[in-house]
TrEMBL record:
Protein source organism: Hansschlegelia zhihuaiae
Compartments (UniProt record): Cell membrane
Gene Ontology CC terms: plasma membrane
Membrane topology recorded in Swiss-Prot or TrEMBL: Multi-pass membrane protein
GO molecular function, a single term: cytochrome-c oxidase activity
Signal sequence bounds: none
Location of the Heme-copper oxidase subunit III family profile domain: 1-205
SUPFAM superfamilies: Cytochrome c oxidase subunit III-like (SSF81452)
Ranges annotated as spanning the membrane: 28-51, 71-90, 97-117, 137-164, 185-204
Designated name of the protein: Cytochrome bo(3) ubiquinol oxidase subunit 3
Gene3D superfamilies per UniProt: Cytochrome c oxidase, subunit III, four-helix bundle
Keywords: Cell membrane, Electron transport, Membrane, Oxidoreductase, Transmembrane, Transmembrane helix, Transport
């Protein structure tokens, strides 16, 4: 912690710090607040799907469109990415940069596999005429699942950025803090996807 210094002034003494003061765990607290706001966004999207998810407008329903084995494979990819990120955090705690980066690469590959399968699913649905404009069900479906997919995309970009920073500067305090923030973000996306898989795909396939 920086030592306070004094500067004389006409109206007394002014105390200040020689270097910038960063409150301990301030970044993590701020990131928790961000995740809470993201929870509100997804809560609104889930609520919209709950209201509109049965309005098919004489078009296809989830039972007609969803390929559960493919979605189960996609879910497995994302859950595995969460496990590998957890192993990366364990290696970070031991300051093993090489092993940590290896686990992060696996995390990135699982995340990209998840996005690839999701894009394939979207392409297949649109090719069959199940576009977002077809019905309220499809509009709410693409909005909810697509928003989650965008979050995973940003997470992959963030992950690549952090791997480059760690490779250049090592496990300095700033990089550890950023990796912890990304860890919370990544696991948050897993929790949201479990909700999507259960509420959208499983229930939708039974409609």
């Amino acid at each position: 912690m920086s030592t306070p210094s004094t500067v004389p002034a006409d109206n007394g003494t002014i105390f200040y710090l020689r270097s910038e003061h960063h409150p301990e765990n301030g970044t993590l607290l701020g990131f928790w607040l961000y995740l809470m706001s993201d929870c509100l966004i997804f809560a609104c999207l889930f609520a919209s799907y709950g209201v509109l998810g049965r309005n098919y407008a004489a078009g296809p329903s989830g039972a007609d469109l969803f390929d559960l084995p493919l979605v189960a494979l996609n879910t497995t990819m994302l859950l595995l990415s969460s496990i590998t990120y957890g192993f990366a955090m364990l290696e970070m705690a031991k300051n093993r940069v090489g092993l940590m980066l290896s686990w992060l690469v696996l995390t990135l590959l699982f995340g990209l596999a998840f996005l690839s399968i999701e894009l394939y699913e979207f392409h297949h649905m649109i090719a069959e005429g199940a576009t977002p404009q077809r019905s309220a069900f499809l509009s709410s479906f693409f909005t909810l699942v697509g928003t989650h997919g965008l979050h995973v995309t940003f997470g992959c970009i963030w992950l690549v950025t952090l791997m480059v920073q760690v490779a250049k500067r090592g496990l300095i305090a700033e990089n550890k803090r950023r990796l912890m923030c990304l860890s919370m973000f990544w696991h948050f996306l897993d929790v949201v996807w479990i909700g999507v898989f259960s509420f959208v795909y499983l229930i939708g396939s039974m409609s």
